[in-house]
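testing teh design pipeline on a random one, pls ignore if ur not involved
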């Protein structure tokens, strides 16, 4: 029989504090929470402070079967780890949300028996291991990077088990487990030896692929899909199809009490169950969940505590806590004022003999707070548990909580950063991604490539051959007349992927003609002209004397402290780059690249604050009226409480308003003016403009760009972009324009799922799915003439949905009203043209449907995709087309690429793909486009960069040393089977320029693939020798097994012979100068290649110092 207790007046973390005090010893407590990740995280942090028990959370994967995507591996892994803890622990607190509670899972005994237990010396074959991993839901991959993945090769198994911080590597001797250890997934280096390991499931449906296919007899369509793709994405929804009986979380729990942090547990469960049922594609899949009635009954078996802020129930008991709303509410003019008030409050509480805990997650902000309190002779210590506090004192708890409270009965006062400062300083993810980088390992057979010395050919794959007595791997390139060139992989640097002009197929060059060398000569002359123009721009910029902003930190210090988050490493780097530029007398011209929502605007606002601190004005130029207003709201909120006046101009403002704003700008009473091209008006003059910030410069037309260029000449300029156009990249990479890159995604940001759909029914289903999870939808339809018809169609199919439309031809007041309604949640669906491409940032909008998606460019699709997924919820981008098969190849490729590049921070790759699809002709101009077609974009830009360096006196000619050797040096195919992975390792060997880096790479390979073959060891030394020889100006290098070495230097080489003598003597190598440019060495050693590599490294280091 259940006992219901209702309580109200819960403030912040007081609900968590109260249930810990009420919890019965030895009886697990289940806390029922809303379907909100942030709430669950805060409550968990609070409970870990208040209780010494284990705090478990059972996360949801709220995916709809319609999405056809696997749940995130780390979520499934966390769910399994929690189930294991429930089975093992006697007493604990479990956090659960409606979805996790309702979703069916394997029976308890089935889960326990499925776990793989391995230990050293055990006989457990790899075949058996693979079958069991398949049953547990693990995915076979080439490289293990995430929980729930595995790979098998030779006598090695790499597995990333559920609940493990690192992947594990199992080394076999026949069928015996010889060793088990964790390893670093990036460096592949060993971390910790293990005697045994338990591998938990990462799926809610425990079946092998064979069992799965066999069970799908009732659906021929699903069975055929399974036969082709195995356990395809979404397989976990199909338990009812294969007649697989399942259980629920309650079977694992046994006896427990319940606490609900919502006003009505029953109403919440029934409401969420209705949402789940309506989102299921068919009746069968509704069987994946238990009924709402059953869930309520099972939650209500014992004590039930309903805890909320307010209640309508007359039986509800008020909690005796003072809340943050009454005790910690301050006038927040700025951070300094808030901290002063906080210190006074803390001193007052200390007089009352209170145990005070300040909860803040940020390390940076903790330090600032400690420094501030030191002035009051308050010295707080950091704690992990409330039980650590012995008497009246101030402590710091380094985690985020929902809000503070005071409990006079226990003499505790808990204060959050939100209580004092009005915001939460959160710790960001420290996830870094590779910067813009095109890899030859992306090559597919049939792709066009450019060889620096032989021209354009077609890549035919990797061939293992013996040529002129040298055994190794070669890249086969097809040329005109079916001639094949075999390029040794040590010369991989001579190859580039071809990028030319859209729809213009390049001509293959001939190996029997000198035409390529003549063409290269003409292309170099053209590149030289461009380099001259670039250097003229560079010289003009350097010659101009700008304003050197001072390092006066008073205003900027307060502004920085008011930032609500902890800056990411690369965001800070960009900020410091900007500061340094502004403090120089040379006018700043910096490009900041980063994906939507990655923190570019904060960098811009820091720059603006620095300019204002030096009494300069700031102009922020944006391409759309919507973005102008969005930036105005962002800047106004960020500068709140500081003596900074901000306004904006766009067509949303009347002529009278604009005229008045222009007047204030001239008088100097407006510090920051944000606006569209109206800022470029001849009627506007600034009193003292010091900084121009441009958002997405490529969106402006030619006439606007000319005006921008004239402004840039006299002021510091900061440009922000998510997808840099290749011309901009070229300027940046050539050193003409400075560039900062922000690659770290915001905390808890998930990649947007992109899917191609067709037909009205699929569009409506996508809208319905988003509305049912409480979100809003962008429906992009870029035809003004029939946009109202789309609205009518949606309303007909979804009569309860609140739908309206907006486009650029509407009058400003009407558009403003509609956009405000959508922003305030008064509309469910906004049908709009591309006016939404920039500037609308609404966290609750997590689905965008792009009608006629094939008509948009790649960068534009990428920008539109960025309108959603800007919160902790998964975002969905649906590309609607009539018939994918009927689209031309370019359009199909474009839509395929936007689906593939779902990772956060893919803007650089998008820029290069867009270049490939659109062609590079319009980037460099008509005259140069011919050279781009005939030599390829990358080689042409390399020629420009080389010419720039030559003119600046910075160019160093690095020869491509030709190697002849009777030593076998390659990566055997039976050692690393995947040709793409072998290719990537060859590329990495080609980039090694010191012994330490070589050893690190060898360690990584050995750790991942077992004992190094002699051929790989030989390859590592020969590639290192080649790289040093190239930098020393060697044209040819002969290496013999016996240790004989012959070097032929280029005639322009200026190498001091005395250095050769010294290095030879130091390494005990016999040397002989055959001629002025030829040298022979006799290396008498058991390791001749190592000694030769040491010789070349010594020689290179001495030559640099000479």
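output:
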């Amino acid at each position: 029989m259940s006992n219901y207790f209702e309580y109200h007046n819960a403030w912040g973390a007081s609900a968590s504090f109260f249930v810990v005090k009420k919890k019965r010893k030895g009886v697990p407590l289940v806390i029922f929470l809303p379907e909100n990740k942030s709430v669950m995280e805060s409550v968990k942090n609070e409970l870990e402070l208040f209780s010494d028990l284990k705090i478990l959370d059972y996360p949801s994967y709220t995916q709809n079967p319609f999405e056809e995507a696997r749940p995130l591996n780390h979520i499934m892994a966390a769910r399994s780890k929690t189930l294991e803890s429930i089975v093992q622990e006697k007493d604990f607190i479990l956090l659960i949300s409606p979805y996790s509670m309702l979703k069916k899972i394997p029976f308890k005994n089935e889960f326990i028996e499925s776990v793989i237990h391995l230990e050293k010396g055990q006989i457990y074959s790899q075949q058996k291991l693979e079958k069991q991993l398949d049953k547990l839901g693990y995915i076979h991959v080439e490289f293990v990077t995430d929980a729930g993945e595995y790979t098998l090769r030779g006598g090695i198994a790499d597995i990333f088990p559920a609940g493990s911080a690192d992947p594990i590597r199992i080394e076999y001797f026949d069928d015996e487990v010889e060793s088990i250890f964790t390893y670093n997934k990036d460096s592949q280096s060993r971390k910790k030896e293990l005697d045994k390991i338990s591998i938990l499931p990462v799926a809610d449906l425990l079946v092998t692929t064979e069992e799965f296919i066999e069970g799908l007899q009732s659906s021929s369509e699903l069975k055929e899909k399974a036969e082709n793709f195995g356990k395809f994405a979404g397989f976990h929804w199909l338990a009812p199809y294969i007649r697989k009986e399942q259980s629920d979380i309650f079977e694992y729990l046994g006896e427990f009490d319940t606490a609900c942090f919502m006003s009505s547990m029953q109403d919440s469960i029934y409401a969420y169950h209705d949402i789940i049922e309506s989102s299921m594609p068919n009746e069968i899949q509704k069987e994946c969940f238990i009924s709402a009635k059953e869930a309520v009954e099972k939650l209500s078996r014992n004590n039930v505590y309903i805890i909320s802020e307010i209640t309508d129930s007359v039986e509800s008991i008020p909690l005796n806590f003072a809340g943050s709303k009454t005790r910690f509410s301050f006038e927040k003019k700025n951070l300094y004022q808030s901290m002063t008030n906080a210190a006074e409050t803390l001193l007052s509480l200390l007089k009352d003999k209170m145990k005070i805990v300040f909860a803040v997650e940020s390390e940076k902000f903790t330090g600032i707070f400690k420094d501030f309190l030191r002035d009051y002779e308050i010295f707080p210590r950091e704690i992990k548990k409330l039980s650590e506090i012995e008497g009246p004192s101030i402590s710091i708890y380094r985690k985020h909580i929902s809000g503070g409270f005071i409990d006079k009965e226990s003499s505790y006062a808990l204060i959050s950063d939100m209580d004092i400062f009005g915001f939460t300083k959160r710790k960001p993810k420290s996830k870094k991604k590779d910067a813009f980088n095109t890899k030859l390992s992306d090559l597919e057979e049939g792709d066009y490539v450019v060889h620096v010395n032989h021209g354009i050919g077609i890549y035919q794959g990797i061939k293992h051959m013996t040529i002129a007595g040298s055994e190794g791997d070669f890249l086969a390139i097809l040329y005109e007349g079916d001639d094949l060139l075999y390029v040794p992989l040590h010369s991989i640097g001579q190859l580039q992927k071809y990028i030319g002009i859209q729809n213009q197929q390049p001509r293959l060059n001939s190996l029997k003609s000198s035409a390529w060398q003549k063409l290269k000569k003409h292309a170099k002359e053209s590149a030289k002209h461009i380099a001259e123009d670039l250097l003229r721009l560079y010289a003009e910029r350097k010659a101009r004397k700008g304003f050197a902003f001072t390092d006066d930190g008073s205003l900027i210090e307060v502004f920085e402290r008011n930032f609500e988050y902890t800056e990411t490493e690369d965001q800070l780097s960009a900020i410091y780059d900007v500061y340094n530029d502004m403090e120089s007398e040379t006018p700043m011209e910096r490009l900041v690249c980063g994906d939507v929502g990655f923190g570019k605007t904060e960098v811009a606002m820091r720059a603006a604050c620095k300019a204002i601190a030096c009494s300069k004005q700031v102009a922020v130029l944006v391409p759309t009226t919507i973005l102008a207003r969005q930036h105005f709201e962002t800047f106004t909120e960020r500068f709140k409480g500081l003596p900074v006046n901000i306004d904006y101009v766009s067509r949303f403002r009347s002529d009278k308003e604009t005229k008045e704003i222009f007047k204030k700008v001239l008088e100097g009473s407006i510090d920051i003016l944000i606006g569209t091209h109206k800022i470029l008006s001849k009627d506007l003059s600034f009193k003292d403009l010091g900084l121009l910030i441009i958002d997405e410069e490529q969106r402006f037309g030619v006439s606007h760009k000319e005006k921008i260029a004239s402004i840039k000449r006299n002021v510091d300029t900061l440009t922000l972009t998510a997808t840099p156009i290749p011309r901009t990249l070229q300027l940046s990479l050539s050193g003409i324009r400075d560039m900062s890159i922000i690659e770290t995604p915001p905390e808890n940001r998930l990649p947007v799922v992109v899917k191609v759909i067709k037909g009205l029914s699929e569009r409506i289903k996508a809208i319905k799915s988003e509305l049912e999870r409480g979100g809003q939808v962008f429906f992009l339809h870029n035809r003004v003439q029939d946009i109202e018809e789309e609205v009518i169609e949606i309303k007909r199919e979804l009569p309860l949905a609140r739908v309206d439309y907006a486009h650029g031809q509407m009058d400003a007041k009407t558009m403003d009203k509609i956009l405000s309604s959508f922003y305030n949640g008064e509309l469910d669906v906004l049908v709009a043209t591309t006016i939404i491409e920039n500037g609308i940032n609404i966290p609750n909008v997590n689905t965008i449907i792009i009608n006629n998606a094939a008509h948009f460019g790649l960068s534009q699709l990428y920008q539109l995709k960025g309108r959603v997924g800007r919160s902790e919820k998964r975002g969905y981008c649906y590309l609607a087309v009539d018939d994918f098969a009927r689209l031309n190849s370019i359009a199909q490729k474009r839509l395929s690429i936007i689906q593939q590049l779902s990772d956060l921070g893919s803007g650089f790759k998008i820029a290069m793909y867009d270049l490939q699809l659109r062609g590079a002709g319009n980037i460099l101009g008509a005259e140069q486009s011919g050279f781009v077609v005939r030599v390829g974009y990358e080689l042409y830009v390399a020629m420009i960069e080389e010419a720039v360096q030559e003119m600046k006196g910075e160019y160093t000619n690095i020869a491509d040393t030709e190697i002849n050797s009777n030593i076998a040096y390659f990566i055997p195919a039976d050692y690393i089977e995947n040709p793409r992975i072998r290719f990537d390792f060859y590329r990495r060997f080609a980039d090694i320029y010191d012994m330490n880096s070589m050893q690190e790479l060898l360690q990584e390979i050995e750790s991942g693939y077992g004992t190094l073959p002699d051929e790989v060891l030989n390859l590592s030394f020969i590639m290192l020798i080649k790289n040093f020889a190239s930098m020393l100006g060697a044209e040819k290098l002969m290496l013999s097994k016996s240790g004989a070495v012959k070097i032929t230097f280029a005639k322009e080489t200026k190498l001091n012979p005395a250095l050769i003598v010294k290095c030879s003597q130091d390494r005990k190598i016999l040397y002989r100068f055959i001629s002025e440019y030829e040298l022979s060495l006799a290396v008498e050693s058991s390791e001749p290649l190592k000694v030769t590599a040491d010789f070349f490294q010594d020689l290179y280091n001495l030559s640099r110092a000479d």
